[in-house]
Amino acid sequence: MSKPLIVRTGIRRAPRQVCAPKHRSIAFVELITTAALALSTAIAVTAVSIGMARADVLGAVTSGDRTPFAIALFFGLLLSAMGVLTAVVAGSPRRA
Q: Which residues of the chain have pLDDT under 70?
């Protein structure tokens, strides 16, 4: 003897939408993405500038201690080289 299955579980379906959701154009999405990237870049530049001012790297260079400036220059060149390498690799066509 098997028990009959319960048909009503108390879960109701969501009502169907009358119209389909609007699709945004690609240009609008690109505009929003570009604005977000610009804002993020401005925030990053501000944070780095404040960090450099607090670290007083340029003040240490003028007083004769060039070690902090050399380290900062090395990291800057390293990050630039990584960016160039990424651009070169991303720009090359894919091989199948």
A: 1-11, 14-21, 57-62, 92, 94-96
How far is it, in rounded angstroms, from Cα 48 to Cα 51?
5
Residue 19: the pLDDT is: 64
User: Does any domain span residue 36?
Assistant: yes
Q: For residue 96, is it within any domain?
A: no
Residue 33 lies in a domain: yes
Supply the DSSP symbol for 15. Answer: P
The total number of structural domains in the chain stands at 1
Q: Are 86 and 74 in contact (CB under 8 A)?
A: no
For the CA atoms of 56, 62, 67, 69, what is the dihedral angle to 10 degrees?
60
Computed on alpha carbons and rounded to an integer, the radius of gyration of the chain in Å comes to 28
Domain around 79: 26-91
Report the number of secondary-structure helices (H) and strands (E) in the chain.
3, 0
34 close to 27: Cβ distance less than 8 angstroms = no
